[in-house]
């Protein structure tokens, strides 16, 4: 049903068509839950929150795995091998890993498409800027979009570097320990990686808290707990990930 | 009868619709007598409602719920901004939830007495009866009234009564009630039952064959002047307090709709009955554009005082307790700080006239919360009045938790308005007036928290019952359109007035004229009126009017958004209305309620009514601008509440 | 005090606007911001220029009509409405930038006046409780726990001024919409329409072209009535609940 445009002078601009189902058509069939989620800004944010949390869970596991590098090549490479055999004998070799990969790709794609569509919408909603500029919101909030783009580019490089070895200078399949040390022995490898990890930290700091709000977990009393948790997660992940290139650069790991 | 020159006396008016019989049964009787419109036929009737405040919003929503086609107007950008939104303190209802002896009859009695015996008993009793249903209705709509820990509604006390019957939502009761009505209206806009025209201002009334058939309105954005037709027109356009320039009314509240209706034949009743509210923030300088009210509810806990000595200019906290005069508690021990508004205002004026006023120019008295903070703790005071204290601090830059507030009376409400019968119909058939725009329920003084009650009673319950009768008896089969000669004439007059305003191109701004007429009215037709002063004002107003049409400057054109033009056009009507107010004040040579004639007071300075001569409502008929109007008297009959000198001592 | 004002002037929705510079003198610290603009407009009128158009009405901070972005802040530097902002918040010699609300859902009508009817349409889509006049039970029939009543009131305080949208870098109306959803959804009276209300109001909000929420918190900082940021989370929760519960 369309809510009538009752104010005559707004006729000059195209009237918003209204998707509301108030009153008379209230008993009509409503669209499916998936449709409702995908069509609404709140729904898209929910998709971003859920996919973001999936990726965040993965990051925590990934970071913990990375730290195995401090226990030497044996343990690190062994862990890498286990990732391929996990789920056996129920699952075939590497199946579990592929399931995780497919899930992650789906999460990244949904997160990215939602972010792109929402950003386009946001920019359209505020076409004119204020003449009087002033600093707004926190650094993490303002860097969400750029941070997201940096992370997307980084993921591509990261996979080509350490998963497929396409852009790696001396990649050897099955020897992740050596591959990692080689990557962090180049200046650009460190710069790219550390930049991306910092962007990830900021992204997680606002993203985690933001996801909690979107999923309706946040309220006035829980706000401090959520903010502290977001800061702690961001700090632990950043430190955990950065520790590897720093260890390689300082020779702690070689 | 003394000769007051410029008016003639016509036939008395009688309210033909109020039934006989016991007062408690009259409303039921009238509702049963009224003809009804078949539900299937209602959508064929169009009703125009002008204004979207408590009265207009609730009427529009309810009429649409009944099935009528409603066309509604507001000059604001949204119906939610009507000035009812600013009412602070609360709404009365005879629920007796406090078990403190309240009843419908007591609310009826308090209101008739509070109005200084210048209101109709039938109307006031109906108002008291309906008050109970209003609270039920608002709660069902989700109005978040204050509640106690048990989950039930809280009450507080207001001026002029000794029971706690006022329901409230912190200091924003008007806002919450208005949003309730606005939401009900919004629901009807969504269904198509109400066609809303926002930013559209009524400029004149269309009367065809003696019946109200539509309005002329200007789209404030495009400047287009258009006609709208209906089977009945309801004016819910509020009061005319802005004639005083400085008042607690919103900047754009105006008298144009009711004044234009008056010029087309609707009688205007008791125009001189204006309410001066005792607790407003004093003005700070000539730049002042409006005055801000501090809710009457503050008088529940605040104590009003001035220094005992004249010209004592020590800061409040340095004046010892025994050198303070809590004058309301002293003069009126039974009601203390909660005497009715007219009495509190006049007492404040008296102490200031004695030279005991405080603050700049000695135009203020203290409203002190030190004792309340000591008794209840700062936290409790904050919870009850926090938003009012914040507002006071923002405006004055003083902290009312540590320094007593300074307050002074200001124009707040107009009891007068279009004359209506028991059905709320004006003297033009098909034209109804509801809320503050009519005159019927408050007599010469309105009690606190009664305006919201009356607006909603009229809009939700009274008008939707009584308008049926008119529509059923007047099935307009003949169509009226823009081609009709009577319509073309009104449109032409409106356009001429707008064009004239734009073409004078003088050297004075609209505001300068508004300020001038306002100051004149405050001086001579304000808190205390004298024959001398009123005659001076009556001599001066035509001069200002003449000067206005010679020197007004309105930049821009009529075919655009033009706020100067809106203002100037409203002032045209103030300049005529002011004259009628002064004339009414002059002819009513008695004091009653908000109308205080210095010549008519008791030896101890209280208002003295003269019932044998003035126990009537004065309904004025328009003849010509500056011409002598005709006075029609409606005698007031008191069968239940017998007039006595009001005593709050 | 003496001030330099840079004000957005725009003749009508179709004509592009620009900032214009004016000097005003003899401004008292006790004046409200709008009274300062009144002073400017009196001078402009006498000079034969068109006065600056701006929305205002009650001047008590409750009607929600006034709507100016002052030095980049919606309603200016204090947490209040423009009409309750006083000139004591500024210093002699200051330059003040005054702009209209900016959002594509709030098109400019003239100068500083914008069209906020999109807010009305959001309310029309479901921001009410369907209780036709005369159908109500006794007011005490349904007690409301005090914390719920207070929560409802806190959100019902919204004045619909649009500062939240003006301050939001995305032009999002989430704070406005959530205030009404939370007000009505927490009350027992609002329960029967709880799901449809939030779904329809959010859908209408999107339809009007408001942006999405990125939780920057600018809205709650600008809100003169202090509607808190967690309102948005509370509405999200209602919305998610409704997508699961609504009867299809």
UniProtKB/TrEMBL annotation, chain C:
GO biological process: aerobic respiration; respiratory electron transport chain
Keywords: Iron, Iron-sulfur, Metal-binding
4Fe-4S ferredoxin-type domain boundaries: 149-179
Keyword Plastid (UniProt): no
KW Metal-binding (keyword) present: yes
Known cofactor(s): [2Fe-2S] cluster; [3Fe-4S] cluster
Domain 2Fe-2S ferredoxin-type: 18-102
PROSITE patterns the UniProt entry points to: 2FE2S_FER_1, 2FE2S_FER_2, 4FE4S_FER_1, 4FE4S_FER_2
GO MF assignments: 2 iron, 2 sulfur cluster binding; electron transfer activity; metal ion binding
Domain of life, per lineage: Bacteria
Pfam families linked: Fer2_3, Fer4_8
Database matches in SUPFAM superfamilies: 2Fe-2S ferredoxin-like, alpha-helical ferredoxin
Gene3D superfamilies tied to this protein: 3.10.20.30, Alpha-helical ferredoxin (1.10.1060.10)
PANTHER family on file: SUCCINATE DEHYDROGENASE, SUCCINATE DEHYDROGENASE IRON-SULFUR PROTEIN
Family classification: Belongs to the succinate dehydrogenase/fumarate reductase iron-sulfur protein family.
Official protein name in the record: Succinate dehydrogenase
Species classification: Bacteria, Bacillati, Actinomycetota, Actinomycetes, Kitasatosporales
